[in-house]
Amino acid sequence: MNKFKIFATSLVTISAAIVLVACGNTSNSQSSRNSKTLNLSTTAPLDTIDISKSTGYGQTGNVFESFYRLGSNGKPTAGLAKSGFVSKNGKTWTFKLRNAKWSNGDPITAQDFVYSWHRSLNPKTASPYSYLFSGVKNANQIIAGKKNSNSLGISAPNKRTVVVKLTRPIAYFKVLMAYPLFGPQDAKVVKKYGSKYATKSQYQVYSGPFEITGWNGTNDSWSFVKNKNYWDKKAVKLNKINYEVVKSNNTGYQLYQQGKLDLTPLSSEQVKNLKSNKDFKSYPYSYVRFLMYNFKDKNKVNRKALNNRNIRLALSLAIDRNVITKKGFR
């Protein structure tokens, strides 16, 4: 009997998600297991596969890699950099790259990182996450258009060494360097495809364990296939991951029951119906939510009160954050 998992992530949960481990008996399930193929759903199509312009890396984090990658415990482990060293004052990082290749077989070099960072900070690129480079020497001035990207605090002394200069020590810098935004881009490929770059899966090259196929820029289904040139390909157990946009939880569950999906999110109502199942489990899940004051409340009394600093302080002191975290966002 083949085991597959249904993941139920509650949209109002701050630190927990639900897992239902079910039995898949269909021929499709057996075929997926034998071919080492995982069939997944997603609620929205890919917006872009240009790491400089992306607003999220939930999926594409599997096709692009940076100096580090996150391990099973959520801590950064060696990625494209086999080692990283920080100076005593915490303001200079030196990364030594491993002998890695792009999905097309081209070598990944230190200059690919320099080019990528310059491109992401170029005001013409309009990267939505360019602010994450704040703390890198001259990054803020480049974003503001006050300095040239060549003044950015990143250099490539040789093909296998990247040096990053910071304006101040950044405690979370190592974790930040696991984010695909800080990964390399192949200048030759960007220039080759020009305006077509990253608009379709074939107009991109990949540095991570998988590469994308079958994405035309607007379609609702695509696949990740194993990157045969990935430096750690022996650790990649799957040959393929199929993605399909499924906007309805009910549709997703039906597809799962038919063996067309191996994992699917569940609505809160579905969770209620399935939580008594012996295979129903919960697991830790990082999810951020926050509360903020409505300074423009239409009610004059409320608006006046919330614009009073002392009242806001009193409200803050009265809030039981532990209760809100564990019960309010469930």
Automatic annotation (TrEMBL):
Stretch forming the signal peptide: 1-21
Domain Solute-binding protein family: 76-328
Protein origin, superkingdom: Bacteria
Cellular component terms per the entry's GO annotation: cell envelope
PROSITE patterns xrefs: PROKAR_LIPOPROTEIN
A GO biological-process term: peptide transport
One Pfam family cited in the UniProt record for this chain: SBP_bac_5
Primary localisation category: other
Subcellular location: Cell envelope
GO MF, one annotated term: peptide transmembrane transporter activity
Swiss-Prot/TrEMBL keywords: Peptide transport, Protein transport, Signal, Transport
InterPro entries named in the record: SBP_5, SBP_5_dom
Family statement: Belongs to the bacterial solute-binding protein 5 family.
Name by which UniProt lists this protein: ABC transporter, substrate-binding protein, family 5
Species assigned in the record: Lactobacillus amylolyticus DSM 11664
Gene coding for it: oppA4
